[in-house]
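Researcher: I'm preparing a figure for a lab meeting and need a structural model of a single chain. I don't have an experimental structure, so a prediction will have to do for now. The sequence is pasted below. Please return the structure as tokens so I can convert it later.
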Amino acid sequence: MNIHEYQAKEIFKRYNVPTPNGHVACTTDEAVANAQKLGGTLWVVKAQIHAGGRGLGGGVKLARSLEEVKTLANEILGMTLVTHQTGPAGKVVHKVYIEEGVAIADELYLGIVLDRAREMPVIMASREGGMEIEKVAAESPEKIIKVAVDPFIGFQPFHGRELAYGLGLEKEAIASFSAFAASLYKVYMENDAELIEINPLVKTKSGTFVALDGKMSFDDNALFRHPEIEAMRDLSEENPIEREASEFGLSYVKLDGNVGCMVNGAGLAMGTMDTIHYVGGFPANFLDVGGGANATTVAKGFEIILKDPNVKSIFVNIFGGIVRCDRIANGILEATKLIDVHVPVIVRLDGTNAKEAAEILKNAHIPNIISATDLLEGAMKAVAAAKGEIA
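Model: Understood. Here is the structure written out token by token.
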């Protein structure tokens, strides 16, 4: 689950991670009132969406008067903000964050992410604050310092020194930077976060480190431990189809291709998508129906896949272990009764009751259901069907 910048900063403040003062606003008048409440003569008007790159997209602007706050808030609220993380469709801005200006002496990057290979959190830091970290990683990976923290010992002073020395910080800044990083690590661990990014982390002219930005995402499976974080969920920022799928216990992520995928198990789903790409196609989605799939969930899976107008074929690739293949076959037939399955459906079922499933589909005599014996054959048929080469 992702949250907005202003919500991340609310969490930061509970752990004494320094952030500028600010208030969220949903209207222009509220934005001006918030600027008045903050006082001063310099404010930042920030679009609140679940995506990075807001500044480059025109969603973060400086205001030097209340009239300018009003003008900028009016421009940003309701705009469709397009960044490298939103895709070409962009996201509509429903909220802005009005924040006090900060006297910046230096800009850095600081983030924490789980390294699944090492099985521990990794803190990343760079002098390239304010830049797209993906671009820095691709073009200048040597500029990113990475320090893994073993959760059994937690964040220690030597972790902070390694980061600070790697960044080339002056001696008098090392202790305060290390303390900042230690607090951020505590935020990460105690809230079951998957990612924290501060870009930029600024050093002010007074020598204080301040989180000028804040991005956080959380492990959905741990939200039962954090009802106060789950309450921060903004449904308007989530893909409505992905949200609908989750309500039926389906793991669905929309992609940009035209071959719909229905698979059981995340590993098999990723292997299926890779194979589709290998044979020259492009997956339209990731859809894991899980180990407890039944006729209802399979039918719902078809319905969700077909809500994407780009889908030209569907590849059902099920390995029957816990879930029986005949149950999936019946689910496919049920789907054809409940909804208009108007595209070719390539079906590869293997494992428990695969023979029974094959008989069920064969006896149904549905023209647009095409059988496949293995993953490669199924992927090839699905890609060909998406191109209109088989029907």
